[in-house]
Specification:
Helices cover about 15% and strands about 40% of the residues. With about 180 residues, it is of the alpha+beta class. It has a single domain, classed as CheA-289, Domain 4 (OB fold (Dihydrolipoamide Acetyltransferase, E2P), Beta Barrel), CATH 2.40.50.
Length: about 180
């Protein structure tokens, strides 16, 4: 595991593709390690399983859609498909910050559904074993249990691992908070 986040490098997508291919090739083997793409929202770092990752993009043109929850930025064109773009900071109730050149859209897939997630900065690919994750850091409330599968230390940083099925299945994803 790296000592701290160092940025995406030029080959993050190639690394993700190799990790996905290796995972498929080793499906019959007992492989406890899983790879995660790390990214930053404000000053906090998060991880997302590379096996749910489709692409990392610079911010594309996003068309606002009326009458959708505030955390849905709108829709975007991704390889001829129309996908929603979600601001994770708004969905998680985090403070908003200025747009930067480091921001990216992480296109993810859960089941048959794809969407783009706005993040502040792409980090590294890391490997974690299930034993590396602690649920203690996410037991504070219902939101944490729904959206996160656990947390771990990444150098001196606390890395929260996102549970994508929790985000897609959340009542807050496509409806206003009440």
């Amino acid at each position: 595991m790296p000592d701290s986040p160092t940025g995406p490098g030029k080959n993050v997508i190639e690394q993700v593709r190799r990790a996905q291919q290796n995972h498929l090739a080793q499906d019959t083997l007992d492989t406890p390690q899983q790879q995660y793409l790390t990214f930053r929202l404000n000053a906090e770092w998060y991880g997302l399983s590379v096996y749910q990752l489709v692409e990392v993009l610079p911010i594309p043109k996003i068309t606002r859609v009326p009458s959708v929850p505030d955390h849905i930025l709108g829709v975007m064109n991704f390889r001829g498909e129309v996908l929603s773009a979600v601001d994770l900071k708004k969905l998680f109730g985090l403070a908003q910050s200025e747009s930067t050149a480091d921001q990216a859209i992480v296109v993810v897939e859960q089941g048959e559904m794809q969407t783009g997630l706005l993040v502040d900065e792409i980090g590294d690919l890391i490997e974690l074993a299930p034993d590396d994750l602690s649920e203690e850091a996410i037991t504070a409330g219902e939101l944490q249990r729904v959206f996160f599968e656990g947390a771990t230390h990444w150098g001196d940083i606390l890395l929260s691992i996102i549970k994508l099925e929790g985000i897609f299945g959340s009542k807050d994803m496509y409806s206003e908070r009440g």
